[in-house]
């Protein structure tokens, strides 16, 4: 007994049927549009806006400028699917603006952060689905009869046996 793959190969090699049978490239399955092993990134664009500090001055953008000069090329090489725009703005505190495939935009202020903290914010925005932290809980534990919460549950009220009856 031959396998389906062998049968398809025999039919493909038969004279006159070569154009009517599946081509050889379709013998294996492959993912389409995010199914299987295909990676579909959620983020599409990342805008870094900052106010360049004067020479010798402090400013709230020093961490952003340090990130731009030292770590931004490595981030861009690691994530080629993200469009990265750097926009210097005068008299505006630094911030990150992430645009996602769903159309949602997330604004993250970066005033007074160090270059390491800005890199962490950029990594979070690039790796998250919509720029929001999610606390995923796996469920609540099953309560036993001797547990504190289980003891607080009152039985059905009965006027004849109730000790604590509300009387105005």
TrEMBL record:
Residues 56-129 form the Ribosomal protein/NADH dehydrogenase domain. One of its GO terms (molecular function) is structural constituent of ribosome. Keywords: Mitochondrion, Ribonucleoprotein, Ribosomal protein. GO terms for biological process: mitochondrial translation. It holds the Pfam family L51_S25_CI-B8. SUPFAM superfamilies: Thioredoxin-like (SSF52833). InterPro entries: Ribosomal_mL43 (IPR039927), Ribosomal_mL43/mS25/NADH_DH (IPR007741), Thioredoxin-like_sf (IPR036249). It is found in: Mitochondrion. One of its GO terms (cellular component) is mitochondrial large ribosomal subunit. Belongs to the mitochondrion-specific ribosomal protein mL43 family. This is Large ribosomal subunit protein mL43. The lineage of its organism: Eukaryota, Fungi, Fungi incertae sedis, Chytridiomycota, Chytridiomycota incertae sedis.
């Amino acid at each position: 007994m031959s396998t389906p793959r062998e049968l398809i190969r025999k039919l493909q090699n038969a004279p006159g049927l070569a154009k009517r049978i599946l081509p050889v490239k379709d013998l294996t399955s492959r993912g389409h549009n995010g199914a299987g092993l295909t990676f579909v990134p959620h983020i599409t664009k990342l805008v870094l806006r900052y106010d360049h500090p004067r020479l010798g001055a402090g400013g709230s953008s020093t961490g952003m400028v340090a990130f731009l000069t030292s770590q931004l090329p490595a981030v861009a090489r690691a994530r080629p699917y993200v469009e990265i725009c750097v926009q210097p703005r005068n008299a505006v505190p630094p911030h990150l603006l992430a645009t996602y495939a769903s159309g949602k935009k997330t604004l993250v202020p970066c005033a007074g952060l160090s270059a390491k903290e800005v890199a962490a914010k950029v990594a979070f925005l690039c790796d998250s689905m919509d720029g929001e932290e999610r606390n995923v809980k796996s469920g609540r534990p099953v309560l036993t009869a001797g547990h504190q919460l289980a003891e607080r549950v009152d039985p059905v009220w009965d006027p004849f046996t109730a000790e604590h009856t509300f009387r105005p």
